Amino acid sequence: MLKRISALILAGATALTMAGCGSSDSGSGGSGDSSGGGAKDGKIVMGFAQVGAESGWRTANTKDIQETAKEAGIDLKFSDAQQKQENQIKAIRSYIQQKVDVIAFSPVVESGWDTVLKEAQNAKIPVILTDRAVDSQDTSLYKTFLGSDFIEEGKKAGQWLVDQYKDSKDDVNIVQLEGTTGSAPANDRKSGFEEVVKADPKFHIIASQSGDFTRAKGKEVMEAFLKSNPDIDVLWAHNDDMGLGAIEAIEGAGKVPGKDIKIITADATHDGMQALADGKINFIVECNPLMGKQLMELAKKVVNGEQVPQRVVTEETTFTQEQAKEVLPSRKY
Ligand code: GYE
Questions:
Q1: What is the chain's Cα-based Rg?
Q2: Is ligand 1 within 6 A of the CB of residue 239?
Q3: Is ligand 1 within 6 A of the CB of residue 131?
Q4: Staple 306 to which of 17, 226, 237, 301, CB 3.0 to 4.6 Å?
């Protein structure tokens, strides 16, 4: 009898320790629900909270996630937050309520996620960040972050400019169209670019403002830049869409994009690459939206309790006008 009791106590203790390991630092709550323990009926359910549909990049990213989920046999619940953090938080809370197996999302801005991420952790639902980062100090709140190195992208843009003007001593007046305020790509592309160009005092960033990653806003802000600054040499736009909007503004002001004003953008979407091949943009730093396949692989591992790296960086390159002409027919987005 005594033996049986101690065996039971031992079994209970083991179960407790195991529950403890599965959810390190999960704090209180998590009161014995059955979610997060792996897929039910063999099919993994993923809740994906997308930023919005603000750009060509985002459209390609969404399509890729939907297609690759299907290929991987993952049941995808998808929501579009229309670039609003509150909508994304609502979507994540509803995925927690629905007890999905894994939540993936592309945070519209970097800060303000700790509370909802803690809620997911308490419900034992693993979270994967895709594309954009959060600034949470507690990195146990998410399993991995899959996406580009935006600082590197900003540096590549700056380096191209430095190389272009290496033989000139004249001042170079730059305007910058920033992405969505507070978003990781806007913060990092700005700091990467500025770090490189500020090393040479001939480069001056004479205006810098958000165009929210959209074509319409890019055009509007560029029109304002052109009105107040007669001498713009270079535009650095944090994505193709804002660059394309700015091209309309520049043409509207009777100037020639790519010649009177040199343009650098990020993304390398189809429309951006076409404008680069046509000579209206001068240089594009690639940012690859096709990360669905990697995301689905990571999701399967995370749901199965396998170890995944904390950070997975997507591979990217850059394009000149000549290179754009060559690769345009074979581009996938
Ligand atoms: O560059 C921009 C989009 O987060 C990398 O978001 C993404 C950015 C991309 O709206 O076009």
A1: 23
A2: yes
A3: yes
A4: 301
- Give yes or no for a contact between 152 and 192, defined as CB atoms under 8 angstroms apart: yes
Identify which of 181, 239, 240 to mutate to test ligand 1's pocket (most ligand atoms within 8 A of the CB): 239
The CB of 55 under 6 Å from ligand 1? The reply is: yes
Query: What is the pTM (predicted TM-score) of this model?
Result: 0.88
Which residues, given as ranges, of the chain have pLDDT below 50? 1-37
pLDDT at 156: 98
At a CB cut-off of 8 Å and minimum separation 6, what does 258 contact? Answer: 279, 280, 281, 282
267 lines ligand 1 (CB under 6 A): yes
Walk me through the domains of the chain, giving residue ranges and CATH numbers.
2-148+289-315 (3.40.50.2300), 150-287 (3.40.50.2300)
pLDDT at 42: 79
